[in-house]
Structures are given as structure tokens and as C-alpha cells.
Write a structure and sequence with these properties.
single chain; alpha/beta; UDP N-Acetylglucosamine Acyltransferase, domain 1; 7-stranded mixed beta sheet
Length: 166
């Protein structure tokens, strides 16, 4: 079943990435890829890549920049007003540590709560929730949950301060 989804969605991804589409055409292609109508105020740029696509759930007023890559087998939830910089990678699958069991996949979902902003080239690992309004600095690797209203940076990312509300 997974192989059939990957095959079908590979065709959509090829169409999406092979030539220019305006925002409305992209939204329709992403709607086919995800399996539901993408919100009118959401903009996802190409090129884009994913393993499945149908385990990604994007809400309203979301902006996803170019060259993002989602491994969404474990599920990706992106809430309202989230912004992803270019080359963000969201990974929900891993392999077991034991060398004799490394063929076994372990999946765990990612949740980007309302108002999150991920800078360019951020990687989010399986099982992570990034709390509401938090900012993740460019090239950071998120290995554990981020508290709401936080600024985190680094690899692995560490909290450097709270969000300033002026």
C-alpha cells in the first residue's frame, strides 16, 4: 500500500517540480498530494519533496519556502500561521539502534504549533513538538520538544531566550 502511494505521489511531485506553476496551480497540486483541499491563504513553494505526502496536515495562513523535504510516514501537523524557511527538513521516521534490527522503521509525529517560524535549513527529528510562536534559528537541529514562546538555536538546538512581545 505504501509503495502504491509513493508511486502515485512521485508523479505529482514530478509535475510540481518540473516546471512553473502559479500559486493557485501549486495549491491544487499540493491538494492532490496531501489528499485534502489546501487552504486559500496557504502558500507552498516548489521545489518540494516528500516520501508520502498524505500524512502531512497543513492548516491556514502557512508559508512553506523552497526546497523543503518532509519524511511524513509518522505524521506531520502544521498549525495556522507557521512559516518554514528554505530547505527545512521534517523527519518522522528512524531505524532501530540495534544493528540486527535496523531494517525496522520507528515512526513518531512532528507537530509545529500555531505561529512557529523555522529558519532556513532547520531539521526537525521524529517525535518533536515545536511550541506555539517559537522561533528556530537557521541550520538548527531540533532533537526534543521546544517550549512555546521560545527562541532556540544550534545543533542540537538549545533555548537562548523567550520571545519578546512588544
Amino acid at each position: 500500500m505504501v509503495d502504491q502511494i509513493v508511486e502515485k505521489n512521485s508523479q505529482i511531485i514530478f509535475e510540481l517540480n518540473s516546471h512553473y506553476h502559479d500559486v493557485s496551480e501549486r495549491r491544487q497540486l499540493f491538494s492532490k498530494l496531501f489528499g485534502y483541499q489546501v487552504f486559500e491563504n496557504t502558500d507552498i513553494k516548489a521545489p518540494f519533496n516528500t516520501d508520502l505526502g498524505c500524512h502531512t496536515f497543513v492548516k491556514d495562513h502557512v508559508f512553506i519556502n523552497k526546497d523543503c523535504f518532509f519524511i511524513d510516514l509518522g505524521g506531520i501537523w502544521i498549525d495556522d500561521h507557521v512559516k518554514l524557511g528554505p530547505r527545512v527538513t521534517l523527519i518522522t521516521a528512524n531505524h532501530q539502534e540495534n544493528p540486527t534490527k535496523r531494517d525496522n522503521l520507528v515512526t513518531s509525529s512532528i507537530h509545529l504549533e500555531k505561529g512557529v517560524w523555522l529558519g532556513a535549513n532547520v531539521t526537525v527529528l521524529p517525535g518533536v513538538t515545536v511550541g506555539e510562536n517559537s522561533i528556530v534559528g537557521a541550520s538548527s537541529v531540533i532533537t526534543k520538544d521546544v517550549p512555546k514562546n521560545s527562541v532556540v538555536v544550534g545543533s542540537p538546538a538549545k533555548k537562548i531566550r523567550d520571545i519578546k512581545f512588544d
